[in-house]
Write a structure and sequence with these properties.
The complex is a heterodimer. Chain A has helices spanning 2-14, 18-33, 38-46, 52-62, 68-78, 98-110, 125-137, 139-143, 153-156, 166-175, 200-212, 234-252, 260-274, 317-325, 343-353; strands at residues 83-84, 88-92, 114-118, 145-148, 159-163, 181-185, 189-194, 222-228, 280-282, 291-294, 308-314, 331-337, 357-360, 384-385. Chain A is of the alpha/beta class. In chain A, the strands form three sheets. In chain A, strands 9-10-11-8-7-12-13 form a seven-stranded mixed β-sheet, with helices on both faces. Chain A has a five-stranded parallel β-sheet with strand order 4-3-2-5-6, with helices on both faces. In chain A, strand 7 (189-194), helix 11 (200-212) and strand 8 form a beta-alpha-beta unit. In chain A, helix 3 packs antiparallel against helix 7 (125-137), helix 6 crosses helix 7 and helix 14 runs parallel beside helix 15. The longest helix of chain A is centred in the middle third of the chain and has 19 residues, at 234-252. The two termini of chain A are 43 Å apart. Chain B contains nine helices and 14 strands. Chain B has a seven-stranded mixed β-sheet with strand order 6-5-4-7-8-9-10. In chain B, strands 1, 11, 12, 13 and 14 form a five-stranded mixed β-sheet that branches. Chain B is an alpha/beta fold. The chains are: A alpha/beta, B alpha/beta. Chains A and B meet through helix 13 and helix 14 of A and helix 3 and strand 1 of B.
Amino acid sequence: MSEEIRRRLQDAQARLTPEQIIAALDLALTTWRAPDSLYRDKLARDHGVFSREVLETGTIEGLRDWTGEALRALRASEMREPCWAPRLTTVWLAGTIPTAAFHAMMIPLLAGSAVYAKAPSHDPTSPRLFAESLRAADPDLGAALVVGNDEELLETADAVVAHGSDETVAAIRARVPPSRVFVGHGHKLSVAAVGPDVPVEEAAAAVGLDIALYDGRGCLSPAYLLVSDDPRGRADAFAVALSKVLQSLASELPRGPLSADEEAMVREMRARAAVRNGVRLEMPPGSTCWTVIREPLGSTPRPGWLRSVPVIPLSDATELTHRCAALAPHLSCLGHAGWGAQRAEVTRAVREGGGSRTCPLGRMQYPPINWNQDGLSPLGSILRVIDEEGSAGRRA
Amino acid sequence: MQVLAWIGEGAGSVRDDIRFEALALETFRFQYARNPAYRRLCQALGVRPDSVQRWQDIPSVPTGAFKEARLATFPEEEEIRTFRTSGSTSQRRGALHLDTLEVYEASLLASFDAYVCAGWGRMRFAVLAPSETDAPDSSLSYMFSTACREFGTPDSRFYATRDGWHLEQAIADLQEAKQPVAVLGTAFAFVHLLDILAGRGIRLALADGSRVMETGGFKGRSRELTREVLHSGLSIGLGVPHASIINQYGMCELGSQFYEPSLANGIPTRTKKVPPWVRTRVVDPATMTDVASGETGILLHYDLANTGSVIAVQTSDIGRSLEDGFEVMGRLQGAEARGCSIAADILLGGP
C-alpha cells in the first residue's frame, strides 16, 4: 500500500515544473482568500474546534501574504542549485490551526517533493480541505498530496517533518531511519511583551486578537502577558483594559466549544490562580469564555490557555529576558509593543528563550510564509545543498 | 467536637443528612473565616458565607489548587504534619496541612476497621509500601502505619524501606505464613510482586481469611493493568478469593478514604462506600451541576474530616453515583489533546 502511494505521489510531482507548482499553490491559496470561498465555508462547517468567525479571520488574514510572489521568493532564496530535494516527504501534522497545517504541507511541495500528510486526530478537516483545494487548482499537484493514516510511510519517505508534543516527535524520530531527513517541531509556546511606550488600551486591543484567534490553542498564542509595570499599577490597568477587549471579542470572535474536560481545566486554572496571595481574576460571570489573571510581581504562574491568560508585571526591561530564558528552549514567538529604546531587550529575550520569531502584537497568529520555525529555514531544512568545488578546492 | 463524635460512631453510623448539612455549613463558615487562600477563591467566585445555604453550594477546591497555596485554617507554627502528593522534586506537589491528627486518624481507622478488618480483629499485615518513618510526608504510609499499630499483630512488616523494595522477602514470609495475612499496598507494588511470582513460577496459598487491599494506581511506576487483570492476578498469585481483594480510593487532600465493602459483605463489588460524614457528588464539569443518577461526571467530595483545610474537594476523577456509593471510571484527559501549546508544567521563571 505505502509503495503504491509513494509511486503515485512521486509520479505526479515529477510531471511538474517549479513554476507550475508555484502557480498551483498560488491559485489554491487565492481560492481560500476569496470573499466567498467555498473552502472557508466548509472549514467553518466541519472544523468543530473554532468558531466560524475565528476561522474566517484567521484564514483570510493569515493567508494574505502567502502569495505566488512570496512562494517564488522563498524558493529563490533557499533552493540554490544544485541541491537534492526529497522525492517524498511525510508530514506528521499536529494541533488544530488550519494555516499551520497548510504551511506544513505546502513547503515540501514547493521544494518539488510529493507529500504524504498524516492528519491530526482533532483536526482532520484542514488538511483534507487543503488537499481538495489543491486538486481543484491543479490536478497534477493535487495528486502529489495525499492525506492519510499510513504510518509505514514514516519509514520509507525520503524526509519526515513531524509536529507534536516532544514525546510524539521523539517517538516518530525513533522510527525514521538515520539516513533520512528528519525535522521535528515539538512543544512550543509564545509570550506577549508590553513595553512602557505604548498606551495600555492599544496594547490590549492588539494582544486581545492574538489571544482570541485560535482560542489560545496554538503555539503562537500568547501563554503569558508580560507588562512593564512602570509606573506601578500599569500592569493592572492593562489587565482591566484586556478584560474589556476579551469581553468584546467574545461576541466578535466567539470562542469555539470546549470539551467537558477543558471546561473543568479552565475552572481549575482559575481556582489555582485564585487561591494564591496577590492574584486577582477578571472573568465574565457564569462563563469560562475568558479569564485575565492579574499576577503580583515576581510570580511564576502556569501558562495560559483557552483564552485564560496571566498578566505578569515586569519591574524592569531586563526581567523580560530573565522570564523568557526560563522557558528555554520552548519559546516560539515573542509578540511585542512599546519597547522603543529598549527594543534590543526583546531580541535578547527571544534569543535566550530559544525562540525564533518576534512580531508586533496583533500579528502573532500570522507568521510569514518564509518563517524560520524553530530557527530552521523552511525549505532548507529538508534540502541537501551540494557544494561543487573548483580545482583550488574553493566552492564554485 | 461534633465531627469527631460522629466519626467515633463508626462507618456504620446513620447517614444523617440534616446532621451532615449543619456540620458542613458550620465547617465552611469556619474555613472561610480562617483559611485565607480558600477565602480568596470564594471571593473570586462571588461566594460569601451568608450566600451558602446548602452543603452542595459550598465552593469546591480542585486538587490542583493544593499545589498553589497553603490551604489551612491555622498558622504554620501550629502545623504538626504535612502530607504531600506524589511527584518529583521538580514538580509542584499538593499538600494537606494538619494541626491535629485526631480527626484524620479517627476517620481512617473507622473505615479501615469496617472494610479491611471487617470484624476479624488483629491480623498480620504485610505492607508493600514504606512506613511513615520512611515516608513521613505520605498520607498512605501514615494510614498503613496507623492501621498496623491499631489492628496489626507484632509480626506485621513493611516491605519497602529507604533502601528499596524487599519483595523477595515478602514472598518468603508469605510462603511461610500459617495464619491469615492482610496484604496491603500500592497497585504498582502488586504488579511487581506478581511479576516476581510469575517469573519464579510460584503461586501462594494464603490462609483462609487472608485479604488484599490495593490502592494508589500505577503512577507510571509499573505497567498498567486493568482492575480485572490485577485482581485476577492477585487472586491466582496469592490464593485469595476475589471477594477478599478490595480497592481503596483515597487522596492526599482528603481526610477520609473510600473502600469497596466486598470483605464486609462477602460479595465482590466495584462500588466505593462513602462514610456517613462524607458526601460525594458527581457533576458535569461544564456546568458543575449534578448529573443524572448513573451518568458519568467528575467526583466532588465533601469531607467533614477535612476540618483544618477545606471541606469540599474537586477531583480529576471521573465516576458515577450508585445507590450505595460511587464507582471510579477514569481520569480527566490531559490538556494537550486539542492544542499544540506546551504542557502546563513548564513554568515561567521569576527574575
